[in-house]
């Protein structure tokens, strides 16, 4: 048993015991007895590979390049399962480390601290399922991302909710409006009466601050003079419903060379019930001016837009935000990108998506 392995096991057990004391009801019985192991085949006192470990050679890409999974084990106890993850890890420590403890007096419970593992996470609660799903290498693609959301209305608030749970380094959210009852009907989360009349930026910061670090919200409308607020931003979402505001924001982002996604919605009631489309347009930094000049998004105000009079459509806001978020994650290599193009429309009446533009 290597010192590195011993340190990691000891650190894990210490972290898990602290988690149990802090969140006594959060440790539950697991259904999977399998573990993954970074190291060579473990041997017993007889010099032979430890029997009944099951599993076999396995390779998983992790977010940490210095930890390489080499094999998996599956050693089910006589009772058929483990009461919790703490018991599961202790069981494997005994099975794998027992011979080294017996022969050399090794102690795996060193409680060595892996500072990198703690400091690198933006989440205040440990994200355990990313590693369980074996997508740690994909999540690492967001490590250096600084993402701005301009507008925290219906669609923007759902985008913020999704982005908070994505391991980007920093989120900057901007909105100059106050939070009222109608906002609660088209945004995620709860409504407290004490929140009414406060700024959206304050409300959403309070809502998500306990979840992660790197969240910065500001009560501000974005225009051509806001360049300093976007220093270091690597991507932006534009979620405004006024064409004139959109035009200024586009000019700012294009001038700064920041790639961005703009979302929009056009609804009508010509058939009695609501119909229309949701839109997602991606402006790559090297083609943004060209795409802007195609007039795919409204650059002038439309006072007759029915969306502004019938705003309680949370499901459309959430769906529009989902399309934009999926596209962003495609661009970063998290999802497969089958060259869908920069402009996607989705019809409310038929729930079909159309990619009208190839670049």
What do these coordinates show?
The chain has two domains: 3-120, no CATH class; 138-357, Rossmann fold (3-Layer(aba) Sandwich), CATH 3.40.50.720. Helix 9 (243-256) links the parallel strand 7 and strand 8 (260-271). It has helices spanning 3-22, 85-104, 115-119, 129-132, 136-139, 154-164, 181-184, 200-208, 243-256, 288-292, 314-331, and strands at 34-37, 56-57, 71-74, 146-150, 170-174, 215-218, 235-238, 260-271, 273-283, 343-347, 353-357. Helix content is 32%, strand content 17%. Helix 1 (3-22) packs antiparallel against helix 2 (85-104) and helix 6 (154-164) packs across helix 11 (314-331). The chain has 359 residues and is of the alpha/beta class.
Overall pLDDT score = 82
**What radius of gyration results from the CA coordinates?**
25 Å
Tell me the name of the CATH homologous superfamily of the largest domain: NAD(P)-binding Rossmann-like Domain
Helical residue percent band: 25-40%
